[in-house]
Every structure is written in structure tokens, then in C-alpha cells.
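Quick question: what would this complex look like in 3D?
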Amino acid sequence: MGFELEGVGLIHDNGFRALGRISLRADRGERVAVIGPSGAGKTSLIRLLGTALRPSEGRLEILDANPWRLSAGALRRLRTRVGTIHQSPPIPPRQRVVTAIHAGRLGRWPAWKGLLSLLYPVDIAGAQATLARFDLADRLFERCDRLSGGQLQRVGIARVLYQQPDLILADEPVSALDPALADAALGELVEESVRRGASLFASLHAVDLALKWFPRIVGLRDGEVAFDLPADRVTEAMLHELYAAEGDTLPVQARDAATCAARARSSCN
Ligand SMILES: Nc1ncnc2c1ncn2[C@@H]1O[C@H](COP(=O)(O)OP(=O)(O)OP(=O)(O)O)[C@@H](O)[C@H]1O
Ligand SMILES: [Mg+2]
């Protein structure tokens, strides 16, 4: 299993309830997109799945283990099997791209190899091949603080692919990319998850991209699951209701949401 939540709620430190009692399950290798307005709880949910936050109630299992019942060592090993793509990648500014990519595998390498990789890149070809999938092969030795926001975001995606996790969590992974690059980068992410049978759970602001690349869509609103459906059963009316408070326009990459959704569906089937 990829993950399973049963009646999981999250109350933040200040007493704010970000998630109601959510029940959600994804099989190994399943691809699920979570969409919903700002503040719906998408990031909170991803942080729970990444074990960065502990649920306030309910049962949570990640890759067939309850992370909060594991020993410290077992929890560390579980975390090496989960890869998180953050909206703003937490990469030390002066770090070189190659080191940032290698950091994806640090938890899996023996200590000597990890230490060596900080002094001297140990797998240049592997890092370069991963970067090439995102048009960044020539940036291998560039400093991360000299990259644009969109380039840095793609380094964050490349790092997680290099990690080869069993569960990929992506929090708005393409928000800083233009439509063509966003589509291509999501395509790489999906291709990787399909090829290795890894589960992929991504929050996306662009509804058209979610419908195009993900067979299953979870609509989140006010910390509750509004719907959980195959992409081809998500209707315009459901989307408009989900985003009702944001006005009448749906957040999409392309201008015409209806055409996009239709095109997305035909390429899915
Ligand atoms: N650390 C925190 N402490 C208190 N409240 C928080 C914290 N993090 C998030 N929240 C609140 O929880 C709710 C859900 O936030 P979350 O970041 O999960 O939303 P989101 O769906 O990811 O939104 P966005 O689309 O803007 O990224 C919001 O009302 C937010 O203010
Ligand atoms: Mg968020």
C-alpha cells in the first residue's frame, strides 16, 4: 500500500484545525492529485504523509508502517523511502546543483559515500542524466543561488527522482514553471512513478494539469474531502463548487478550462 489514513485529523500548535477526520487510501503505484482552494489543507496533508507532522487523531500508515510507532532508526529508514518535492526547495543557497541532487540519496548511501559526496561528487553521470530530463544538464556545477526560481524548482524535482523513493509527495511541484515546462516536468514525474511502480501524491493548483496526468482526483476544501473520484468523473460543476469562494474562474494553466479538461480526458483514455 502507498498510504492509508483513517479518521486522521490535524490541529496545528495554535489550536487551528487544518484537517477534519480524513479517510484516504492509495495503493502502491497509484497516482493521486489533490486540488482545492488556498488554505484547504493540501500542504498540511502532504506534511502528514511525509511524517513532518504528527496527526492529532486517527490512524496513519505510510508504506505499510505506522511511522509513529517505529523506532528512531526504522523511522529514518522509512523516510528514505519517501521523497518530498517542496514548493520552495529547501536547498542551501551556496550548494552546487550536483550536491543538491546527490543529497536525495544521502539517507541510502553508506556514511562513507555520503561524506565523500560532499567533498567530491561520486556519481556525476547519474546526477547529470537526471538533470537532463529537466533541461538542466549544463547546470550541474552551478551554484543553486544562481538559478532562477523555476530552475531551482526543477532541481528539487530532479533530486527526488534521483532518490528513487517508493512514495513521491509533491506539493505544487510546478508552480514556478511556465505552462510548457510545467507539463513536461509533470510528465517526467509521472513517467518515473509508472516505470518504478512508485506512488505519486501531488497537490496542484492547475486543475487542467491534474486532470491530464492523474487518474484519480481528490478535492479538498476546509480540511475535508469534498470528492475523491476518477479524473473522468470530475465535472465542471464539482470544480466550480470546490473553488466557489475564489470567484468564478478555475485555476488552470491554459485559458479555457473546459477545452483543457476535455483534451486532458481524451489523452488519459
Ligand atoms: N503551522 C501552522 N500553524 C497554524 N495554522 C496553520 C499552519 N500551517 C497551516 N495552517 C493553516 O491551516 C490551513 C491549511 O493550510 P495549508 O497550508 O495546508 O493549505 P493549502 O491547501 O496548502 O493552501 P495553499 O494552496 O495556499 O498552499 C490554513 O488555514 C492555514 O492557515
Ligand atoms: Mg500549500
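Answer marked as accepted. The two ends are 25 Å apart (CA to CA).
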